[in-house]
Design goal:
FAS1 domain, 7-stranded mixed sheet
Length: 828
């Protein structure tokens, strides 16, 4: 117990002694100045050496009430290589002196301390950062700061804080922006805008840099790409300068409440709002945007980091235009071509409220036409009249462009819109739209397209692509009107299909003969209407329009059922046997438009006789027969519509197989055969779908009363002939399809099938048949037909069999009677 008490007393005496020693030492230090302490403490010997080397001894001795952040010797040894990459200057030494005494309990986080250092006449500042690991001082950036290893070494004229690293002078503001990750984007953009040197050599500025992207979502991708291009550097510089104040504003220098500060750009001030908390800024907003990191120090200014962009408030500041947007869309070649060919004004701002839609391909997708003559028209084809938003576009639209191409000065070429549904991209012509449209002001929209547009080709290049129009193409070339159609301006071409031509039957075959070239020219030009008629722009109702066929007019009629074309020959406005219907519309050409129709239209001026129809290959034998009988002039060559004749023309093969040589020796019989084939009526209404070879009907003006085109049924229709009323022919529809003709009342004579037919100007026409019809009186002089012989043979065989069977039954009866075996009535 005694030993424990003695040990305790010794411990108290030792503690008292140590306390007295420390108190004495503290008293001694406190009685010394900052310079005295630094020079007597071996930890700061290297620092003292640099002070003396830079002739800054007097500065430290002259401190009356200040704070020195003194780097220890270890600070120099640890960072020896880094320090000697650049020479320690006098200003850097002075950057460790703060002209006020600040104890550690006053070194709060974010506090700014003015030092005695100057760079280009700009006083320097250091920033305090307080963390869990201690207190740090430095520039406030991402670089390593100096840690206060021992605080509050008090002196008679202030206080010393030992630090583990030399405090460097801040870099110029351009390097400061580059070195900090939050401000690196601002630096990169300043290099693009070529203002980084201005930042470096400015004497006192404040930069408000946005964390990460300076523009965020406030600018579209197109606007951002424009600002990143050389052409956009001036606008980029203006936007960045809008975020640079003309003076240094540290966070503790903003007045409380609202204030405005001038910018380097100059046209729009920045609004600053500060809410103080116990004398220290607790919240700073610039143009309503929060400062999330303040006071990144630079030698010639300071940087504050904003939460989001502070773009200029006025829309006119950026000054968006067609050119700027096209640059941002990578369409600079498009711009250069417009400028090169004197069309640059189309891309400039206009003050006439002209609305336009631009279809612009990227640089790599530009494919100008090979012909230099077309390039202006081609460029204008990318300019659409009107401002067409996505919601305004639908499938099948034809939008008016700026080019006339070959249409004439009063008409503008169109571009077709293709849009299957809302989920698939829009196509202008063959080019699809990439991304969303770019809106420029209230009058302009730009669509980025995948490839440059192609001007509509001339009709002679467009027609052959449609194989169903090959006959019409042949018609144009055969008539020599191909060049006329190609060189015409402002025309609508109504092109009949191959099936439509086949409906003409013999008439089509005649028109394609060399001797019918003039008539074929009439027909070809009749399908070229003067004026461009797009289906969507045609008004409902019927109207007459001139054609290229010597001014002959054609009727166009738009109804709810479609668009119809009517030439000559229709019985009325609903006669679809003649009237053509547009079955495929709006195929654009360089000089107009092509519509496909299902009927060939013939002008009223076209003159076609029965002789013309018979002159085609296949019915020449019958033509010679009529000429031999002197009937050609009366029934074949006249054009009087009041006296139509329908000719039943046997084919040349029919004359060869029917064995009529006997008739040629008898002029009267020959005349009777010829007249039997001539019907003094209009061509009957035959259904093209039922004929052996489709043909046309209703081609020319219909006749009245007994001359009207009569229909044909399955029971047949009787027609008179020139041979008289007792020698009529019957035309019937075959149940199996097609039509056949026979002499009325002739039981044994075979009927003739209808092969083809065609109509003449008079309303009559020619019906080609596969057999020669013979009057009933002459028919008995002819050899029997095979089926007649077959019937006789078959009848003879049946008669012989019946006779033999009867004789057999008679013989059996005779034998039974002779033998007495005849059974009596009622006998069992």
């Amino acid at each position: 117990m005694l030993h424990i008490r003695s040990a305790f007393m010794l411990l108290l005496l030792l503690l008292f002694y140590l306390t007295a020693c420390f108190a004495a030492a503290a008293g001694v230090l406190k009685d010394k100045s900052i310079w005295d302490i630094l020079t007597t403490d071996e930890r700061f010997s290297v620092f003292i050496a640099h002070i003396e080397e830079q002739n800054q001894t007097s500065a430290f001795k002259d401190v009356k009430a200040g704070t020195v952040f003194a780097p220890t010797n270890k600070a120099f040894y640890v960072y020896y290589d880094e320090l000697f990459k650049r020479k320690i200057t006098g200003e850097q030494i002075l950057n460790h002196i703060v002209p006020v005494a600040v104890l550690s309990n006053e070194l709060w986080d974010g506090r700014l301390l003015r030092t005695w250092a100057f760079v280009d006449q700009v006083p320097q500042v250091i920033k305090v950062t307080e963390t869990k690991s201690g207190i740090y001082v430095g520039t406030g950036g991402d670089q390593e700061q100096s840690w206060v290893s021992q605080a509050d070494i008090e002196a008679t004229n202030g206080v010393i804080h030992a630090i583990d690293k030399l405090i460097p002078l801040p870099s110029y503001i351009d390097a400061t922006l580059q070195a900090n990750k939050d401000t690196k984007d601002f630096y990169d953009k300043s290099v693009t805008a070529e203002i980084n040197d201005n930042l470096k050599y400015s004497c006192g500025i404040t930069v408000f840099a946005v964390q990460d992207d300076q523009f965020g979502d406030y600018l579209s991708p197109v606007e951002k790409r424009y600002l990143s291009q050389p052409e956009g550097k001036n606008d980029l510089a203006r936007i960045l300068k809008h975020q640079i104040a003309t003076k240094i504003y540290y966070s503790d220098e903003f007045p409380e409440g609202n204030s405005t500060i001038k910018t380097v750009e100059g046209t729009e001030d920045l609004d600053v709002y500060v809410e103080n908390n116990k004398g220290a800024p607790s919240a700073i907003q610039v143009n309503g945007v929060r400062v999330i990191r303040s006071d990144i120090l630079a030698a010639n200014g300071v940087v504050h980091v904003l939460e989001k962009p502070i773009l200029p408030k006025h829309k006119s500041f950026f000054g968006s235009s067609a050119r700027k947007s096209l640059i941002g869309m990578n369409c600079t070649r498009f711009i250069k071509l417009f400028d090169k060919h004197g069309l640059g004004a189309y891309l400039d701002d206009n003050e006439n409220d002209v609305t336009t839609t631009i279809l612009a391909p990227s640089n790599e997708d530009m494919l100008p036409p090979s012909s230099k003559k077309e390039i202006k028209s081609w460029l204008k084809y990318h300019l659409v009249h009107g401002r067409w938003d996505v919601n305004d576009l639908h499938d099948g639209q034809l939008l008016e462009t700026e080019t006339h191409q070959d249409l004439g000065e009063k008409s503008y070429q169109r571009i077709a819109v293709h849009r299957e549904d809302l989920t698939k991209p829009i196509h202008f012509g063959r080019s699809s739209v990439i991304g969303d449209p770019v809106y420029v002001g209230d009058n302009l929209i730009i669509y980025h397209i995948a490839e440059s547009l192609v001007l509509p080709r001339d009709p002679l290049s467009r027609l052959p692509v449609n194989l169903d129009l090959s006959t019409f193409v042949a018609t144009l070339y055969a008539s020599g009107q191909d060049s006329v159609i190609a060189k015409a301006h402002d025309i609508s071409l109504f092109a009949p299909t191959n099936e439509a031509f086949s409906r003409l039957g013999l008439l089509a075959r005649y028109l394609l003969q060399p001797e019918a070239k003039d008539k074929l020219t009439q027909v070809a030009n009749y399908h070229a209407v003067r004026g461009v008629f797009y289906t969507s722009e045609m008004k409902e109702g019927e109207h007459r329009e001139p054609t290229l066929s010597s001014g002959a007019e054609i009727n166009l009629n738009k109804t709810k059922e479609g668009i119809f074309v009517r030439g000559s020959g229709a019985a009325d406005g609903s006669d679809r046997t003649v009237i053509g219907k547009v079955i495929k519309s709006d195929m654009l050409t360089s000089n107009g438009v092509i519509h496909t129709i299902d009927r060939v239209q013939l002008p009223s001026t076209l003159e076609v006789t029965n002789k013309n129809l018979l002159s085609v290959e296949g019915t020449n034998s019958f033509l010679r027969l009529l000429e031999r009988c002197d009937l050609a002039k009366d029934v074949l060559e006249h054009l009087d519509p009041k006296k139509p004749y329908t000719i039943l023309a046997p084919s040349d093969r029919a004359f060869g197989k029917d064995g009529l040589s006997a008739l040629y020796d008898n002029r009267e019989s020959l005349m009777r055969v010829a007249k039997l084939h001539i019907l003094p009526v209009a061509l009957p209404l035959l259904d093209p779908g039922e004929a052996s070879s489709p043909s046309a009907y209703g081609t020319f003006t219909s006749q009245k009363q007994d001359k009207e085109h009569r229909g044909i049924g399955y029971t047949g229709t009787d027609f008179p002939t020139l041979l008289g009323e007792n020698n009529m022919v019957t035309i019937s529809r075959n149940v199996a399809g097609g039509y056949y003709v026979k002499v009325k009342g002739s039981i044994t004579q075979e009927s003739a099938d209808v092969i083809n037919y065609g109509r003449s100007t008079t309303g009559g026409g020619v019906i080609e048949i596969d057999r020669v019809l013979v009057p009933k009186r002459e028919y008995r002089h002819r050899g029997m037909a095979w089926w007649e012989i077959a019937l006789i043979v078959l009848g003879s065989i049946v008669g012989a069999v019946f006779l033999a069977f009867s004789l057999y039954l008679g013989w059996r009866w005779y034998q039974a009677r002779r033998d007495g075996r005849i059974q009596l009535q009622g006998q069992d």
